[in-house]
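Hi R.,

Here's the chain you asked about this morning:
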Amino acid sequence: QVQLVESGGGLVQAGGSLRLSCAASGRTVSSYAMGWFRQAPGKERECVAAINRSGSNAYYPDSVKDRFTISRDKAKNTVYLQMNNLKLEDTAVYYCAADPNYGPGVVDGMDYWGKGTLVTVSS
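And here is the predicted structure, written out as tokens:
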């Protein structure tokens, strides 16, 4: 079983950038499909990025496409979410997640979750 700990959240101005990190322990990140989800107050959780185990296939919804990038550093056993050109609507708690399988269902949820890190985008 993998344990996930997010970091890197904070306050950033609109148009700025932030990189979130997800440190994994217990298992290697290459053993899982990995994803980043977010949930804003009063809104449903949504997947903002997902990547399969090999890294050959990544998913981004239209709301973040060309702004967010998910990546994986196997040596550090860490997954990242690079967020550029941040918008007010990107304000949310961001969660790292892992799943043994990568299929259509991963954007709805994964098996293992971190506790989240808050990103606040100000005007």
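One quick note: The first strand starts at residue 3 and ends at 7.

Cheers,
M.
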